[in-house]
Amino acid sequence: LGLTTDLFLNRALPGLWPEVVATLVVAIGAVIFSFFIFWLLRGVYGRIDEQNRELERSARELRELSELERSRAEEWKALFELGEEVTASPEMQGLLDSIVVRAKDLLHTDIAALMLLSPDGRQVDMAAQSGLQTRAMRTLTLIRDHGLQGLALETGAPVMVTDYQSDDRLRDRPATLVKEEGLVSLIAVPFSGKGKVLGTLTVGNRKRTEFTDHQAELLRTFAHWTAVVVETSRLYEQLRNLALLEERERIGMDLHDGAIQSIYAVVLRLEDCAERLHERPDEVAADLEKAMDDLNKV
Fold first, then answer.
1. pTM for this entry
2. What contacts 48, CB < 8 A, 6 or more positions away?
């Protein structure tokens, strides 16, 4: 700029005009340069903001994936521990209590209830529960086609209800006890063994909840374990009955081979004594003493 002023402006313009023009050129250049720098910086900052937003999205997705993996790990752990319980103990009531507690905790619901179909298939009875508050619900017995459980048994598939009182599928099914318990949203799944329906497993919340298909499938897994527990318990009962029959048969054989044979021998001795009573009474007295001793031993 100084060279241009010396060579051209001082020769072309009189007085102070060269300095004025030079100053204007510097000011305009500075403004243009500043706008250019700010334009570059806006682009850089814009790219940085976009990268930050992308990083935030990635971090959010990573957190969601981590939460999902943690949730899946908890589910597998709970099911694995339940499987260990089922294989380790034949005691049905304790296992049913464990199932409802685990289902309630894993699905993060307010209640869980397990109902078994009666032997005649006409009603379902409360077998285990967790979180129920009213006595009527804790000791509930339903006719087979009543309530949410009846609908699950009728369809043979999981039934999810967001609002029990307004669901059209439950309009003709009694709901008074459910209302008294304060339950709003529920899932009920049926379970069966060897092709025979055994009962239902239900979880629910006292506030409106949009249950997912994954939660329904998870509850079905608990229901399958419940079927295993019920069938295993019945097999154990059959084995116990069979063992009792075998023990009775063994005792009968032992009696036949031991005590009954001994008694029969005593009877023969007494019959012989009766025949010799008048001929040799002294000998008969001794034999009678021996017969009484044998009976005492028997």
1. 0.60
2. none
